[in-house]
Design brief:
With 250 residues, the protein is of the alpha/beta class. It contains seven helices and 13 strands. It has a five-stranded mixed β-sheet with strand order 4-1-3-2-5. A four-stranded parallel β-sheet has the order 6-10-9-7. The protein is globular and about 55 Å long. Pfam families: Rhodanese, UPF0176_N.
Amino acid sequence: MIYKVCAFYQFAAVPDYRELREPLRAFCADLSLKGSILLAEEGINGTVAGAGEAIDAFAHELTHGDMFSGRLNNLELKYSTAEAMPFGRLKVRLKKEIVTLGDVAADPTRQVGTYVDATEWNALIASPDTLVLDTRNAFEVAMGTFEGAVDPEIKSFGEFKDFAAERLDPAKHRRIAMFCTGGIRCEKASAHLLARGFAEVYHLKGGILKYLEQIPEAQSRWRGECFVFDERVALGHGLRERDKGHPRDE
């Protein structure tokens, strides 16, 4: 069996997120889905895997069903496949933030950077006046990144604001292009930089995964593998499964 994997997120007002945990868990369980879902007042974030028709039903419920009542009408969805079930169980957890930064001024529902489609990304990062910034953790960067990208050398995303305060300057870094695995960390990071007075902040829409899905390897400026937080460990161009030898971290 080939499993369908769905990575998704959206920043949206979900004040009743606590009440939604059990209905969402039960819905996923009925579909025999496994994976991890985070719910917070600021939105939803997760990755689940299962049979193709089950994943389709899950995505339809999030975007068009009664559970979220149309609040997830701009859900970022990315699909890939796995030869074996990439998750051991189903987890639906309540969190303060769906991606932890710890900056109340970084609110992606109010402002985010300019989205750049995968097809336009190469041209943007080739410009000499663009600072290309990898917002992921150091061990992820070590597995693969874009040519010329700056590694913030952080152990967790929560350290990004300290990196920005110490090493980024709105007067010096006039144009910043950032990227992450699926796009969610860049939503928070770009909101944080804009709140600090940076003028031009861009981020790769759909993240590295969308880029690897859409851009042919011959045209790619990506080097290495993209770490994913499941048993597949890493994906390459075309979202093909790659090396199994790297440790996982959640």
